[in-house]
Amino acid sequence: MTVFVRTSNELLHTYTDRLRLAFRAEQASLFLPFADEPAHKLVHRGTGEPVPEMRDESAATVLSHQVKERALTPSSALKSVCPRSALIVIPSTPVNADFDSGDEKRRREADNGDAPPAGILGLRYESPSSRDEAFGEGSDAGYVAMESSLQVTALAGELLRQSMLVSTALEDPVSGLPGRALFQVQLRRNVEAARAQGRATALLLVSPDGFGGVNEQLGRETGDRIIAEIATRLKAVLRSDDIIAKYGGAIFTLLITPSSARSLTTVGNKLRNTLGALPFLDGSVPLDFSVGAATLEPSPRAGIEPAMLLQRADQALGVARQAGGSRFELWSEELETTNVLRADPLNGIFTGNMSKDYRNMALLSQTMNAVASARDVQELLVRVVRPLAEVAKADCVAVCTRDDDGGVVVTHGVSRENGEPGQVCFAETTDLAHEASTLVAEAMHSGRVVDAGVVEGTLAGGAQMHSYAVPLTAREESLACLYLDGRADRLAVDAADAGFLQALASQLAVAFDRSRLAEQQFAWQEAESQRLRGQLDELREAVQQTKLIYRSDAMKRLLETASRVAATDATVLVTGESGTGKELVARAVHRLSPRRHKAPIIVDCASVPSTLIESELFGHERGAYTGAERRKIGRLVEADGGTVILDEIGELPLEIQSKLLRFVQEKEVVPVGGSRVRKVDARVVAATNRELADEVENGRFRADLYYRLNVVHLRVPRLSERPDDILYLAHHFLQKFSVQYQKGILRRLSAEAEHVLQAHSWPGNVRELQNRVMQAVILSTGVEIGVETLGIVPEKGGPSPSAPHKAADPRAPVAIAAPPSRDSALSSAKNGDTVARDTASWQVLRDALSEAVETALEASSPPALGTWLVNELVIEANDGAGDVMRRAADRIGMPEATFRRRLKKARENRDLGGPPPPHWERIRSVLASLLSMDSSSGEDLVKRARTMLLEDVRRRLPRDVAVGSALMGVTEPTFRRWTRDLS
């Protein structure tokens, strides 16, 4: 195997061997104090034991200090304790060298012996006589006689030092192989040599499949160790004349001389099988490999450049990966029409030419920023087309699309015009010549880059012109085309430039595709909104607002009954065990009723002391009892025009029940200490976990009140009576708490855990299930939730963990990933996982905002939730980006200038102080989780979150503009405009 640039270790070993042979020694030791790497400090070459003074690095360091302290020079005596050895000081400056008059300091240091030695050479001989033969009789005379040889040694040492520095800089630090820059140089040399010698050459790209998951799951340091192991295996299996380098990432490149296509295929498959035969990291990480290859035949072909050979191998590797990986693919003409994923999208950008690379990267970066921030495609093209024309020195650059008749239309273009001497002027162009339009049409039809080549005499004065068309392709469809033309002596588009233009075109295609999808989405939304306006499902909306999660038939029937009774003013009694969700059902009745415009008044009868419950319900007059310093209207009066929910009504004392009976019958209230009767229009929904019929029989509840309350009875079934809801609720709570406690939302339940959940009797009902899942999320350290973290002991008589269990319904709101297979265990989460994670997080935010709005409506002065939400998003984005404004603005999806202005305002508002709204800590954690997801969609997250809040406010307050604008923190005209935009 040949590594075309000698590594620093090889240089050092070769240098030491040459010195050993020059001084006719059996063993040579070289110590270099200047070396940075431990492996470069001390090298032993030859046979036998080293010189005692240089047996290890520690001893050699001591010897080096002695040389410097005693100001020894090469001509000074340097004795070894072994008579069969010799110690030689290699000076940092050649002995008797001519010094430049401007370098007096260096000369004085050398004369005085202050300069540290460049190195120390230790030589060991078979006998003292062989040493004397090499140095002559008399040690001192021998050293003086060696003066001229030491000059050569010192010069060679300096060359060694410089070569090692260059070699270390150009080596890949992980694999120790030459990197991309050296490979680009060697590739061109190899192709030129192959053509000159009339032989074939082949380029292979070798890459492990799914290696990105290794770094993501095991860490970059572990990934680097595997890269080093791959490099070691490659070196072991290649031939001596093969050339190997690390091209970038986890891609290795090989240059070999094949005897035939069949032999190349054999080599590629053998290479792939050998690399993947044994797992890496002591057998813990199995990897499969894909290999792509391209050949250059002995007969020269026009247009086949080294960069094109690399692109063909890259295309072949892409085909191998798309076919499932673990295969060898040889490039052929048929692959030209294959739409493949590039193995290395930077192939056409990094060319080895520093000025061109910098130019390409700057222009590509500018294009990507424009794609992210431009308001529309037209603005994007204005910001990209002219810089491209200037950089490429083109006469015309245009981006074209097709009209309805299939003709070519210039969306935006510029053409060169004559200006002042030394200046280049460009003017907007709106049309292309017939030949250019034909070229564009061909490129868009074929989906391939079309190069018209150099055409003689097509410009003024008979100059040559070069034309080029690059299709902008997305989803296997040509959406537009990038066209360039110009003088052939200026617009020289080679294979490397072609690769760059394709990368640039892919970024522009993203913008065109996004614009097209936005138009389609807008049209679909318009049609869908028209359809949904006439088919609004009030029950589903109310359930979403109250967060009732279910899929069982029992709960469906219950909610259907609730929806029918909600339209009336009938009193409703909701019963059920603790933790079944009685309050949520009561809230659903209110949300479905005509009284839903006003927030419900909820009284927890069990939590109010018996001495205060009367005042809490009916209010009191000032001075009614000790401590009643001011008048209080009571919760029943507060519910006037709305609904009062009496939770745990079975806990009321008997004396209060009699007074409540009058309210239920007559809707009249008399406050404590008062005599004036007040009429109250409030609907009563009562809830209890007791069997009131039994309480009546035992004399603990008034029979007349019971019959007045039990007009419509809604019994909420136990969780054990609706097993279909168990896993459905568990998955919902799992994702909710994963986001809330910043555990990441890709959690899943193990099969055994799902079993235990279904087998458990759930005496605490939904509340117990919620707490079990919350505990599991908090205590979990991995992706999978097991039985141990749930803290549930399987009950006797329940199904065994190995028994069949009911799978989660695919309609569940959160997709639960199956355990990864061997092939996918190391694959990182891609598009589907990202979309599921994003959707789940936004749903959690919607629930949290709905809960905050509901609580805010119960306050006497609603907080400005909209202002808090915007400020929180901006501040969280800035903190997550480490105060880097551009990165924070990109993350939140708004222009940098707008972000700076909003951040300043948000900080000013925060400095004003004041407590945050209710539930705000939960909302803050969800926002942080959303912003931690790397999204390049460019969507304005502030607008999306604010719209989500606005939708909830409008649903609750369809006609109350004053309260709605207060909740959003804007003026009433602005609130009206926003609500109109929602329609």
**What is the typical, i.e. mean, pLDDT?**
76
For the secondary structure, the number of strands is: 24
**β content, as a range?**
5-15%
Tally the structural domains: 6
Helix/sheet category? alpha/beta
What fold name stands as the CATH topology of the largest domain?
A: Rossmann fold
Order of strands in the sheet with the most strands? 12-11-10-15-14-13
Largest sheet: 6 strands, antiparallel
Query: So what's the CATH class of the largest domain?
Result: Alpha Beta
Oligomer: single chain
Number of DSSP helices? 35
- Give the fraction of residues assigned to helices: 40-55%
Q: Tell me the span between the first and last alpha carbons.
A: 70 Å
User: What is the global morphology?
Assistant: elongated
CATH architecture assignment of the largest domain: 3-Layer(aba) Sandwich
What this model shows, in words?
By secondary structure, this protein is α/β, with parallel strands linked by helices. The protein folds into 6 domains: 8-170; 180-337, Alpha-Beta Plaits; 354-518, GAF domain (Beta-Lactamase); 540-717, 3-Layer(aba) Sandwich (Rossmann fold), CATH 3.40.50.300; 722-819, Helicase, Ruva Protein, domain 3, CATH 1.10.8.60; 831-982, no CATH class. 48% of the residues lie in helices and 14% in strands. A 6-stranded antiparallel sheet has the order 12-11-10-15-14-13, sandwiched between helices. Strands 6-7-5-8-9 form a 5-stranded mixed sheet, with helices on both faces. Strands 17-18-21-16-22 form a 5-stranded parallel sheet. Helix 11 (306-322) links the parallel strand 8 (289-296) and strand 9 (328-330). The radius of gyration is 40 Å and the shape is elongated. Residues 1-5, 94-113, 138-145, 340-350, 534-546 and 797-837 have low confidence and may be disordered.
